[in-house]
Amino acid sequence: MTMPYSIQIINLLASLLLLIAFAMLSQRRILSLINLFAWQGLVLSLSTFVVAYSTGQHHLYYSAALTLLLKVLVLPWLLHRLMRKLNVRWDVETLINIPATMLVGIGLVIFSFNLAAPISQLSESITRGLIGIALASVLLSMLMMLTRRKAIPQVVGFLAMENGLFFAATSATHGMPMVVELGIALDVLVATFIFGIFFFQIRETFDSLDISNMEKLKDD
Amino acid sequence: MMSSNQALGILLQIYQSLLVVALAPLLTGWVNQCRAWLQNRSGPGVMQPYRTLRKLFHKDAVIAYNASLLFRATPYIRFGCMWLAAAIIPIIAVDLPFSPAADVIALVGVFALARVFIALAAMDIGTAFGTLGARREMLVSFLAEPALLMVFFTASMISHSTQLPRIVEALAQHQFVLYPSLAFAGLAFVIVLLAENARIPVDNPATHLELTMIHEAMILEYSARHLALVEWASSLKLFAYISIGIALFLPYGIAEVGAMAGNWGSALPLAIIALLVKMVLAGAALALLEALLAKMRIFRTPEFLGTAFLLAVLGLLIHFLLGA
């Protein structure tokens, strides 16, 4: 039951994606978090490229190139610049300690593998096993957003979540129409800009990027 | 009546056991030499462990006044355990007569037995440092052991057997396949290897500061031939762990007894050359890893080993999902 090499490579990249999601979850430094996000984008771009090559769908080449440009170069650069401008070098603060987060993460992986099993059986595509991994990385990024206290890690979590969704789209259904992909890419870019502006606003109001301060914004 | 295959198997078994005992200090010396080079020192040379062993065997043993029989017996038990482990692992040939004696789970048990005895012996004298070392060793190993078992389970799931020779055959003799699950297991195994062999991010084998010791703190009271056996057993343990790593993740070149019967003039030297090349590379890689990493605080160790467990479990899960 040997699989063709392209499928093996995609499986390997999918596993790497999951590994990077866990690495992000365990990361204590913002700088490494952003670098990991760039690596995740690179893996995503590579896997899209392999899918494009093995299925012969030309529009996927564009989306691989777009991923490379946007998620490996532009967004990490924007985040780095934001970090420099905000002068934030402190370590990431987590709400629950990291080993506990990892255990919750394993639980999420098992949950999403179980959840994806019946969906995968409906799919005709040969890469159907990857839906579970994509779902797991989406949920892990969400977990990262939930457990981080500061604003920048949460945004990185949001962007990583989008990576997971994108991976699900390319691996399970061989990609979305080009218009949709362009739209999402633009959305993410704009969202990062807006987040950047938000960061400055939050810091100006509270002198810190700790979003728990925002609970004080009530009227009473 | 013994068939010629069986006789050859027994011969190879004896040969492998002797070879491993003879080569284990050389591996330790090589790792230390590589480390010295990486730290810009000239280093004592790869034969230094042999010289140390010779010196230690010539000294008179000094044993604490209140040491029990356990303390005297432990070096021999530990050395025996490590030697047994090295005899079970397919190092130069699979299908050795000893290998059915224990599968991978029993192999973990053999390592655990040696560990229990050294920890008990460390507490036997009643010094503070011995007890401290024993407790730390137990802290490290109770986290490393499940990770090691998970690594073995991942390999067993792929090859449908917990016998090391079967795993080696299944992984080496099929068409080349990329196993993402094995990549995860390999990463986890490296972490376990570092922790179990008292290497740098967890423990510093060259330290002289008692407060940071783990393994060294346990053997502070040993001297002369006992210390020599303990050191030799540690070398054997490192050799055995690297051999397990080779058997699981790089099983190419390990000979088969059955195939060797006809042309063993060519198969055996090939197996030994493959072993030596892999050991030299693995030792250099280990030294490089140690030069790159910094020793972590003892309280960070559980997190480090937790990562190993996580990786191994992820490997297992990915095997279930992708079937690879």
List the helices and strands and how they pair.
The complex is a heterodimer of chains A (220) and B (324).
Chain A: H1 5-26, H2 30-55, H3 58-86, H4 98-122, H5 130-147, H6 151-173, H7 178-206
Helix pairs in contact in A: 1-2, 1-5, 1-6, 2-3, 2-6, 3-7, 4-5, 5-6, 6-7
Chain B: H1 4-38, H2 48-58, H3 69-88, E1 93-94, H4 104-124, H5 128-159, H6 164-172, H7 180-196, H8 215-218, H9 224-249, E2 255-256, H10 257-260, H11 264-292, H12 301-322
Parallel strand pairs in B: 1-2
Helix pairs in contact in B: 1-3, 1-9, 1-11, 2-9, 3-4, 3-9, 4-5, 5-6, 5-7, 5-12, 7-9, 7-12
List low-pLDDT spans of chain A.
none
Strand content of chain A: under 5%
CA-based shape of chain B: globular
* Percentage of β-strand residues of chain B: under 5%
Q: Provide the succession of SSEs of chain B.
A: HHHEHHHHHHEHHH
Helix/strand/pairing category of chain B? mainly alpha
Straight-line N-to-C gap of chain B: 44 Å
Mean pLDDT of chain A: 80
| Uncertain stretches of chain B | none
The structure class of chain A reads mainly alpha
The number of domains of chain A:
1
Mean pLDDT of chain B: 84
Main sheet of chain B? 2 strands, parallel
Number of helical stretches of at least 4 residues of chain B: 12
Radius of gyration of chain A: 18 Å
How many distinct beta strands of chain A?
0
Q: Judging from the principal axes of the Cα atoms, what is the shape of chain A?
A: globular
